[in-house]
TrEMBL record:
Cotranslationally removes the N-terminal methionine from nascent proteins. The N-terminal methionine is often cleaved when the second residue in the primary sequence is small and uncharged (Met-Ala-, Cys, Gly, Pro, Ser, Thr, or Val). GO terms for molecular function: initiator methionyl aminopeptidase activity; metal ion binding; metalloaminopeptidase activity. Residues 131-356 form the Peptidase M24 domain. InterPro entries: Creatinase/aminopeptidase-like, Pept_M24, Pept_M24_MAP, Pept_M24A_MAP1. It comes from the Eukaryota. Its EC number is 3.4.11.18. A divalent metal cation 2 binds at residues 224, 287, 319, 350. This is Methionine aminopeptidase. Substrate binds at residues 196, 294.
Length: 366
């Protein structure tokens, strides 16, 4: 679950020419090109035309061509207008779902105050790593299941309800539920929503993309992951955005190991995104994760000069968001749902990783 950079800092995107030949001194200029009086014999009746009659004839042909072009342009505009997706609107948000009393809660549950970002880096011993693996594996299974539910006409509220049930059936707590007042068990961010979308009664539409962000609290440890899914028939432009976003996550993870600089993550992600003309959202960042949902280190996904090195046994998330257009954002009055300012689609992928001596282990896999 992404943090805002500001929050982290504070604590806490013509018909082809019909007649050809050399221009004579007496020829006139027509449509910006010299018009020859040397006429092809392949057009019946043309040779019997006088020069004046020929110019009129040519104008009629070119006028027809112009009319056809105008008609095609109008038809294209109509098609474009129909194909343009309406902006995302908030649906009805249902009440919070309940969690059985026997399931342990994170310490922030029961307060709507947004917790401060813990300053300690979370570095684990053998037992802690085992519990992080278990939490990460469950989060990955839940996310994969949630992805199977994505199809046109399904509501994000239905996805939330199914995810909630799977998590509590596994003896875990859905980490987003009650975090700083967040009312649902999963984040569902559709199309131009960068992140933190609140599940509601809106039905998914054919051609949407949707990021589902799952975090579970199992045996005292959080596992955090997200993925962007296709809903129905998605166009090639959106598919490419999603593909490159996932590749950016992979590029960021590839530079991680004991002793590596954190800033290499942002450099590698930015280089790959820019290669395809996409921009990396700067407002939202990755974070340390473990017994605490959000802690240091803050992981910037864009180029930066921040100091700091990774340490063996450390766990944190990498979760870049790419935009087709603006990386500026607007947040709805619910104080969570954040969209691109210009309505451009955005895509995100996230893993929780463990730093090892020689690289990084992805914990959110199954």
């Amino acid at each position: 679950m992404a943090l805002t950079a500001s929050l982290a800092h504070n604590a806490f995107p013509k018909l082809a020419t019909l007649f050809h030949g050399e221009a004579s001194p007496s020829s006139s200029s027509f449509m910006g090109s010299p018009l020859s009086l040397s006429l092809p014999s392949t057009l019946p009746g043309i040779q019997s035309l006088s020069r004046k009659q020929f110019v009129v004839f040519a104008r009629k042909i070119t006028g027809l061509e112009e009319a056809m072009n105008i008609r095609r342009e109008r038809e294209h505009k109509v098609v474009t207008k129909v194909m343009k997706r309406p902006p995302l609107r908030r649906g009805r948000v249902s009440p919070r779902l309940s969690v059985p009393d026997h399931i342990p809660r994170p310490p922030y549950v029961g307060s709507d105050i947004l917790p401060e970002i813990a300053s300690e880096h979370q570095i684990h011993d053998f037992e802690g790593i085992a519990k992080m693996r278990a939490a990460g594996e469950l989060a990955a299974r839940v996310l994969n299941y949630a992805g199977t539910l994505v199809r046109p006409s399904v509501t994000t509220n239905e996805i939330d309800k199914a995810v909630h049930q799977m998590i509590i059936d596994s003896g875990a707590y859905p980490s987003p539920l009650g975090y700083g007042g967040f009312p649902k068990s999963v984040c569902t961010s559709v199309s131009e929503c960068m992140c933190h979308g609140i599940p509601d009664s809106r039905q998914l539409q054919n051609g949407d993309i949707i990021n589902i962000d799952v975090t579970v609290y199992l045996d005292g440890y959080h596992g955090d992951t997200s993925k962007t899914f296709y809903c129905g028939d998605v166009n090639d432009e959106l598919k490419n955005l999603v593909k490159v976003s996932e590749e950016c996550l992979e590029k960021g993870i590839a530079v991680c190991k004991d002793g590596a600089l954190f800033r290499k993550i942002g450099k590698r992600i930015s280089e790959h995104a820019e290669k395809y003309g996409y921009r990396v959202v700067e407002r939202f960042v990755g974070h340390g994760v473990g017994t605490v949902f959000h802690s240091e280190p803050i992981i910037l996904h864009h180029r930066n000069d921040n100091a700091g090195c990774m340490v063996e046994g450390q766990t944190f998330t990498i979760e870049p968001i790419l935009s087709m257009g603006s990386i500026d954002s607007i947040t709805w009055p619910d104080n969570w749902t954040t969209l691109t300012a210009d309505g451009s689609p955005a895509a995100q992928f996230e893993h929780t990783i463990l730093i090892t001596r020689t690289g990084a282990e992805i914990l959110t896999t199954c």
